């Protein structure tokens, strides 16, 4: 069916996109795997870095006062400017791409986890202090579980950013990936393939989000039961 | 076990909260403190619990100073303060974990059973009523196994019926688990029902104004106003408070 006589190269129909998906399925799978690898490793390292930074900054308030502004500044450096630098320094391998994703992902995790730590119930704090709990015991048994809901909010945000970060990193020089498929298709006016790439980027983001939501529901199951 | 609070004074900035406050709690006694709301009763517990330090005076437990030392007494706040991600059993277990002692499950089960909580051992706090949550918090306080229990208006947030039930329950539990208790309340009736001795305090700054010994036999106290000497004692305490 043709509506408003829009050319296929301008806006392909869903049927065209589906047909194209089927035709280049092997290529999509290969590109998807590459983007998935960069996203997941970037997200994981961002997670470790984010939780690590949040923990250190929370437990040592003096460091938080010094470094928190720098972390904020780091988020204002345009990724488009930072990425070529990383490529110049570390080459075209997977490493710099994962680093880019990590730099995007760690920030929401730091902010949300720190926020979670500071929102610990003061009555529970008082109880544990009076009971003689050590600083570390209070952190492990009270502050960390209290921060989990906030941490998961940050993680879900990071997960969606991770795919976007992986795509941007692939633009800078890569042979594989949904980002590469996107640029190549766009340059050759294969709008249908651009849509195919976009669709799979969205699907990958949603998958990450859903998986993290499942993990969250499993870990925070005490919040579910009425 | 002997707790002796000797002439302690404390101020938040320039506001004096308590001045030369002294009280004694001896082994196996149930001692209550009645004072107006917002008079700094909880601050007294923070001082005994080592969370705050008095500007002057001494707090001795078995003749040893416990000023600034945490973990020397068990503390139960007004709100149940249960960890929402832990089940009833796990919440009691934390008392052992803090002491780095391996949780004795049989011991915990025994405590829960005695408190009528065995059936809800694997429930989460939000699945329990307010009264049940306070029972769990009390059992956790017992499990801490400290020489003295500091209970800060534990039934203050409960409705009248639940409160009466909890008072009877506490009496029963304490009959079996002989403990030394320092109890903060603003209910005269509650204090007479449970205590051996009652300290009546004035506010701003918090100071002991009167001490009453409750000589009404335990088995008579359930009758409350019908018990011999109840009305007279209530009247005396009321007068002391005004």
UniProtKB/TrEMBL annotation, chain B:
Keyword entries, A-Z: ATP-binding, Nucleotide-binding, Transport
CDD domains documented for this protein: ABC_NrtD_SsuB_transporters
Domain ABC transporter: 3-228
Keyword Transport part of the UniProt annotation: yes
Entries under InterPro entries matching the protein: AAA+_ATPase, ABC_transporter-like_ATP-bd, ABC_transporter-like_CS, ABC_transporter_ATP-bind, P-loop_NTPase
GO molecular function: ATP binding; ATP hydrolysis activity
First and last residue of the signal peptide: none
Protein name: ABC transporter ATP-binding protein
